[in-house]
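step 4 of 6: structure.
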Amino acid sequence: VRASGFALRFLRQRLGLAAAGVLVLVGVGAVVGESLWRYDYADISSDLYLSPSAAHPLGTDNGGHDVLAQVLRGVQRSLTIAVLVAVLSTLLGVAVGATAGYFGGAVDSVLMRMTDLILTVPTIVVLVVVAGSVQKRSGSWALLALLLASLSWARKARLVRASFRTLRERQFVEAARAAGAGAGRIICRHLLPSAAAPVSVAATLTVATAVLAETSLAYLGLGPPPPDTSLGQLVQAGQDSATTHPWLFYFPALAIVVIVLSVNLVGEALRRAFDPTDVPISPD
Amino acid sequence: MRRFIVRRVAWNAALLLLSSFLVFVLVAASGDPLATLRTQPDVPQELVDRRAEELGLDRPIVARYGQWLTAAVRGDFGRRVVEETSVRTLLWQRLQVTLRMVTAALVAGVVLSMIVGALGAMRPYSVLDQLVGAGGLVLLSLPVFWLAALLKEAVIALGGLTGRRLLPTLNQSEPGFTGGLLARWADYAEHLVLPTLTLSLLLVASWSRYVRASMIEESTQDYVRTARAKGAGPARILFRHLLPNALAPVSSIIALDVAAVFGGAVIVERVFNWQGMGQLLIEGVRDVDVNVVSAWLVVTATIIVSLNVVADVVAARLDPRIRLG
């Protein structure tokens, strides 16, 4: 896939472009909005459970926090975690898949058995066990991202390996080898570019699954501890008052849906740009 | 075929062993199961020491795993840290509850995604196809527990409007239910509706895309044209030729997603207050109970890897081009 043609075909996908615009808007808006908005996410006041009004556009919660300030903070936290997970898990998946696919043999067997292990153990048990002890000890969101990344590289590794296995016997690889290129050069210069398109789609979609995974963890009580917050944490906290104080439950969830849907649309547009058939790619 | 199955089963047993060891170590290292007991002022030190010895806390983790494993192979999963009930009995009760939900969701998911995917593949890019695709993408963008809570709230709100309870929104069966076998099954079914709907909506949103893509791909193949030229009707082409070949690649994706369904069930059980395996897992982690968490893993992972082997065999049966090696 030639890079310029790929970019052109992506630019032709209007819905995907719009979604990318929404994402940038939400991300930048959350950072800028937080510094401009008159309330801080950690501010406590005696105005408990206020309905949305001009002073508090999204209302306040049981601690008198301004929900808009909290959502702005939550968007930043969730997006940072998700992007970090996507980058780390893609690097890991590409490294494992490339090594297994290029070298084959025993290396391939060992690495692919590891991949099987990740794919067959229900990730939720590892997440719940480790996130519980991580949270008890330090409560760091970066560790949470590391944990999610270490569990979501397997399908990307399979993707890269499959593409490498079909390519490594081709003549251009043989020619490069005959010209004296080492394994590292052949992998990076000749093989990786051909796998780049599906991997970039999977990486994009990982952002979406990571936001949702963070939400599930927060629901099980394993989100970032207060006063810090994430979108999952906010929806979780608003759950019990969904009927009495609906703004606590619906506004943060709306932010999640907007982010995840946009990421999914961008991923879909990227996939269409290099593959006109409708075969989905699963991220992790 | 038989050699393939034997090899896969052997490899999966090794996988199970490895994952049970990893999870055992993770749980054992995550804290002290007697932490609350130690902080209680009126508990004598001897009692704490005796419990610590019973749980083997004074011995290295690997030795504890060895002891757990030798018992587990014989089907003895030990006792819980709290209440000291048998983990095996408890797990068996909870498994029945969770399997009801998971099985119903998987069956509904497979059947509906085949129908939805086939409908889309018959007229690609028609209005219906595009609507289904867009709806699926929105569904896949919702957090599981939020979708579950949303359905729950919607049923409660509708019930408030009509003045009667439409569907139960809590528990896996009516507490204190008395009645015959049929009435009990009806009660189970009623409680199953919302949790199953939550899980299967997400499954259909994902799987129907694969079914659709696979069927569009297959329908361009020569054998379909040949069948049509020989006078096969649309129904015969669909059921006899297209579906079996199109489902072969989908079946492996479905099997891989079973792990995610068990994960989703943990969340859904919590939203609908089911006393199933998911609750047990959460409690086990909370109590730093290696016996509960390891048994949970062994049972769940066994189900998952078995289904994966079944899926490979099914795929080979459906599509003669696939060779099991």
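step 5 of 6: annotate
 - Chain A has a mean pLDDT of 85.
 - The interface with chain B takes residues 113, 116-117, 119-126, 128-130, 132-133, 136, 208, 212, 215-216, 219-220, 232, 235-236, 239, 242-243, 249, 253, 256-257, 260-261, 264-265, 268, 277-280, 282 of chain A (CB under 8 Å).
step 6 of 6: archive
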